[in-house]
Design a protein that fits this description.
By secondary structure, the chain is α+β, with helices and mostly antiparallel strands. The chain is built from five helices and 16 strands. The chain has a four-stranded mixed beta sheet, with helices on one face. The chain has a three-stranded mixed beta sheet with strand order 2-5-3, covered by helices on one side.
Length: 282
């Protein structure tokens, strides 16, 4: 009975409220105010904030310097974010290599444009040994390119060699450090010379001096080291022990006449007491 009386009272209150003109007047006023606020936000405030319907075109700034690219982007009422990319030796430093959004995209004014530049430290690489192993000019170029180095001057060597079109000399020397993108100059063989030269006496000489004496006569050397298989030694820097070794015997007798560029085998030892005294006339 108590619940029924409460429900009946609530029903009577609701019926009276719905018949009250002040209630409907207030409700209508609130509804109109809400609609007015909606149209104000939708038609005035939001378009002003989001700049609806307004777009600018992102300029194409790839391959430009970062400073120039930044200015072009900012001139379009856009902001710039610099991103450091990996170093590429074939592209100038601080050059834009990528952009996001892409060029010619339509974006809102004030949009951030990310510019990736060729930055970072230039890595160092060791210069490879391109001499003394019968490496052709083409193969030498490929080896340099694979390390990020460039072939520089490529010229025929003034000292002949038995193996045409193979590398006989390089600058910088093997083992030197170079920045990526730098050049290595190469000299190559044109084959044995047409001149006849006389083999000098190099027995008893340190290996380095023996090499120099042979090259002065336009002759090549092959170092025979009993500690390891013999190898052509046209690159003094490739044998760090050469300065401590002496020529014990040479493959061609002194004063023998041979073609320029002929290889002379030098049998070496690290014991200076096992070699005869060098020719004092040299």
């Amino acid at each position: 009975m108590r619940l029924a009386r409460r429900l009946k009272a609530a029903f009577n209150w609701l019926r009276a409220l719905l018949r009250n003109s002040y209630f409907w007047g207030g409700f209508g006023g609130l509804l109109l105010l809400a609609l007015a606020m909606y149209f104000l936000v939708d038609a005035v405030i939001m378009p002003s904030y989001t700049r609806h319907g307004v777009a600018v075109q992102v300029p194409d700034v790839e391959s430009r310097s970062f400073e120039k690219a930044k200015q072009l982007v900012q001139d379009r009422d856009l902001t710039v974010q610099r991103e450091a990319g990996p170093y590429n030796p074939s592209v100038a430093r601080e050059t834009v290599v990528d952009q996001n959004p892409p060029a010619n995209s339509g974006v809102k004014p004030g949009r951030r444009v990310y510019l990736t530049v060729n930055a970072g430290e230039v890595p160092m690489v060791n210069v490879p040994d391109l001499m003394g192993r019968g490496i052709s000019v083409r193969e030498a170029k490929n080896q340099l390119s694979s390390l990020g180095l460039e072939p520089g001057r490529i010229e025929p060597d003034s000292v002949p060699s038995p193996y045409p079109n193979t590398i006989t000399r390089q600058d910088p020397e093997p083992g030197d450090s170079l920045k990526k993108g730098k050049a290595v100059d190469l000299w190559y063989s044109t084959g044995l010379g047409t001149d006849t030269v006389q083999v000098p006496s190099v027995v008893g000489q340190p290996v380095e001096k023996a090499r120099s004496l042979l090259l002065r006569q336009k002759l090549r050397s092959v170092i025979v080291d009993p500690r390891r298989p013999e190898s052509t030694a046209t690159s003094p820097q490739s044998d760090t022990s050469a300065a401590r070794r002496f020529v014990q015997r040479q493959g061609r007798a002194p004063e023998t006449e041979v073609q320029a560029g002929t290889e002379i085998r030098l049998f070496t030892t690290d014991n200076s007491t096992q070699v005869p005294a060098p020719d004092s006339t040299i």
